[in-house]
Amino acid sequence: MSRKVQDIGNQYTSEANAKRQRHERLKKVVKKRMIVFGGGLLAIILVLLIMVGMQIHSNQQASQERQAKEEAYQKIQDEEIELKERLNNLNDEEYIEKIARDEYYLSNDGEVIFKLPEDQQKEKQKQQE
């Protein structure tokens, strides 16, 4: 509305102007409230999204760590089984006798041990490894 038109100073126009001004002020207040509450809601949503992202990252790290520990645990279990088998073998007299004959060339009374050239080659390979 242009200002070339002058208001008539009657009661109706002054009430209409006052009503229009109240309405404009109310719109400004509502707009400010919407901005404040919208900004607060946006801030809360951002904080929650950041927390979710951090939690996902933490869960991934924990999962990787758990998997690594499970692998280490499995290796330890395998080693334990191997050591138990070895212990059982060391308690077996036949096994001990076999080891003594193969590695230390021990013999029973009346036995003679012969070293073959193939045995010497196998020993050299074992020593190189």
Automatic annotation (TrEMBL):
Superkingdom of the source species: Bacteria
Record field: transmembrane: 35-56
InterPro entries linked: DivIC, FtsL/DivIC
Keywords from the named record: Cell cycle, Cell division, Coiled coil, Membrane, Transmembrane, Transmembrane helix
Region annotation (Disordered) ranges: 1-20
Gene Ontology BP term (one): cell division
Coiled-coil intervals, chain numbering: 59-93
PANTHER family xrefs: CELL DIVISION PROTEIN DIVIC
The name this protein goes by in its record: Cell division protein DivIC
Organism of derivation: Staphylococcus rostri
Lineage, top ranks: Bacteria, Bacillati, Bacillota, Bacilli, Bacillales
